[in-house]
Amino acid sequence: MRIPRRFLPPTHLLTALEASARTGSFTEAAKELDLTQSAVSRQIRNLEDQIGFELFVREHQTIRLTEAGAKYAYEVRLALRHIAAASMGLRANPRAKTLNVATVPALGNRWLVPRLKDFNKKHPDVTVNIYTRPEVFDFAEQAIDVAVHFGSADWMGCNGVELMDEAIVPMASPDLLAEGEFTVPADLLGHPLLVLSCRPDSWETWFTQTEVEFDFIHGPIFDQMEACAAAAVSGAGIALLPKFLFQRELNSGQLKVVFEDAMHSRLSYRAVWPVEKENNALRGQFVTWLVDELARR
Fold this sequence. Notes:
Elements (H helix, E strand, L loop, with lengths): L10 H13 L2 H8 L3 H15 L4 E4 L2 E4 L1 H26 L5 E6 L1 H18 L4 E6 L13 E6 L6 E15 L1 H4 L15 E4 L5 H8 L11 E2 L2 H9 L4 E5 L4 H6 L3 E2 L5 E12 L6 H15 L2
Parallel strand pairs: 3-4, 3-5, 7-8, 7-9
Antiparallel strand pairs: 1-2, 5-11, 6-9, 6-10, 6-11
Helix pairs in contact: 1-2, 1-3, 1-4, 2-3
């Protein structure tokens, strides 16, 4: 069905809206778009005239989105992201065999990306784009074909498969271990315990599992596993980390396992994809390859 042109504003008007809504200022949007403030203001007014409603409330020297404007700006932002992703994908692979994969940073950087060469050998006509996100992925916001994430199975509107569980053990640098006695798990309580914000109760669970009584856990909080591991390598504290992701540091001696008592998370690494991608052949090939690679881990 042909879309009426009056419902398809020019791209330059939509980018002016996106920048103005995101920055909350015509002036800042103008700087970003390399335009004058008056030009951006005029483009927003032209857009309002075309679609027939007000997007911004103008008050003295400030602007704020109307309720309708906020909803429209959100949808426009998603549409522009999809257009940009499609353009980049076509440029990367003109034959249009492109797969967009999202993953959590540590797994992507340390396990997935180093193994992509094998997938590329088996599927030389496919270009795999990798997007790392520390937070939960939203398939509606970005054109992602499959996500490899750590978490629960309840992704609404998605299918998926469990890849593996996660077993974490306490790791520390040799210098920190030389500072004291580490004969029983309770000895860890006398040292800084590094906490991952995405797994805030990991230490409590580990100590409970090893039957250690504790009052509270003290130590710095990190929002990404890579930073937490780097702090452990520097001697800043002890971290609960999965062996399979930090084998390099273990092999080099930068980190050592303090106790072999492994805690198995109730969450797991999973591959998930939108229901509408269920019959996507590229998605199927990639997930099959993932499962096979992990079986050899």
